[in-house]
Amino acid sequence: MPRRQDLDVYVEFYALWAEDADEDEPGESPEPAEDELLASRDRRLCFRSGGHTHQAAFTAEVWDQEPAKAEQESWEASADAEWFCRSGEVALWSYGGTSESVVELGAPDTLWRVRAYVTGQERVRQLAQQEVPAGVERFLVQFWPA
After folding, report:
1. pTM for the whole structure
2. In the beta sheet, which residues pair with residue 80?
3. 52-91 pLDDT, tens per residue?
4. 3-state helix/strand/coil string of the chain
């Protein structure tokens, strides 16, 4: 069974990213390509969001080995990446700053495989034009040692 953390993260300007928690300030703003859900760049995991400004549900799972892939019909998109984390803790960022919670990976100086899933992007794109929705967009991000 994985270790699991459920977090609420604030998203601004369609972007959310993860950095090693030992970084003092976020690096340059990530810009995933138009068709990318997840990109690993400059020690960051960059996630594209469907909504400009909203609160997303973010579930992180840490596995000892590669988990089975989730059923395709329940997710709008998925993507895989590799990512090195020096501290063993992950801070989640958006343009408004960092989340108060961190994802505990548990193993420092580790190269991780990462698989991300998302649902609710189309719906949050519509709703975020009129309001600041919460929990409409949901991410599942799975980590396991490479």
Report:
1. 0.91
2. 115
3. 999 999 999 999 999 998 877 789 999 999 999 999 999 9
4. CCEEEEEEEEEECCEEEEEECCCCCCCCCCCCCCCCCEEEECCEEEEECCCCEEEEEEEEEECCCCCCCCCHHHCCEEEEEEEEECCCEEEEEECCEEEEEEEECCCCCEEEEEEEEEECHHHHHHHCCCCCCEEEEEEEEEEEEC
Query: How far apart, in whole angstroms, are the C-alpha atoms of residue 122 and residue 142?
Result: 22
Whole-angstrom Cα distance, residue 39 to residue 16?
A: 11
Extract the tokens encoding 30.
């990530």
If we measure between CA atoms, which residue out of 123, 125, 130, 110 comes closest to residue 63? Answer: 110
Asked whether the beta carbons of 83 and 47 are under 8 A apart, the reply is: no
* Radius of gyration of the chain measured on its C-alpha atoms: 14
With CA atoms as reference, report the closest residue to 81 among 49, 51, 111, 58: 111
Unique residue bearing structure tokens 């719906």? 123
Dig out the tokens for 44 from the structure: 């960051």
